[in-house]
Amino acid sequence: MLAGVSTLSVIMNQPSYLVFPCFGEEGFYYECAFALLSLSRLYDIGNLPFHEIWIYTDNAGWFTRFKDCPLPLRFRNVTTAEINEWKGAINYLYRSKIEMLKDFTETHQGNVLFCDTDIVFTSPLAPLLQGIEAGQVYMQNREGIVNTRSSPMLKRLDDYLRRTPHTPVNGKNLFDLPMWNSGIIGFNTSIPDVAADALAFTDEYYPRNHSIRVIEQFAFSVVFLRSGAIHAAAPYTLHYWNLREARQIFQSFFTHLKGSSWQQLTQLSGMIQLFETMMEKVRFENSQNFLGKIIQVKWRPPATNWDELKRQL
User: Which of 111, 194, 204, 242 matches a 20 to 30 Å C-alpha distance to 183?
Assistant: First the structure.
């Protein structure tokens, strides 16, 4: 835990679980490790609000490099065959994410926070977890009503839903509902059939031409909206889904600091300010002239002098 941060333990009546899907290319592993470090910056082990932290992975051995990590990590090994099965007949990668959540909730009861790896915890989670235990549901942030067509993604989804027969939800057509980002999915397992209903919706509405990859998060949006309001997890987390370059920073960080203790990594990781890095990328992209946009000049994160950062600390 960083100096100056004092986070009291959360008094809960049910166990709380943090769950990550982490498989495939190594970039996801760097993201997951950085997410865990961000949690350690907020909490010392005695005040950690999670009973267990589960990682669904095809390479649990990758995490053995953090031998002194005090977090209660548990691993659910998944195989390539299992992931392919979870993609279903529609061969949709993000369907496997729903299957992982279904698999977990079949054997665990309580408060579940299911997170993509590209998440950073920024504030103590007590209000969020207490809300989940009280029956509230959470997703990362609301991205807009589908019919506003305010982004290329929503425009494609709006076009698709308008030409696809569907059953209204709470008296509204699907294209009149909001899309929520599924970087965070939080709920209590007392809410029945969350994953099963999301799977059913995904299998029914995933376009066979694979043109709309966000059906999974729209499925959770619809399932949760059927039973009430969705609450935003954004006050407690940063979801840097549009900063894939962060993986280069993390790889440099973990490579240069190989052999450092978990406590040292926790302290030093606080020097990586992802929100500022995201803004730097946005400023670069907005500054591109017509030619730069045509030839698609790519932004690259600046190299970091980790030794200098260590001296600053």
Answer: 204
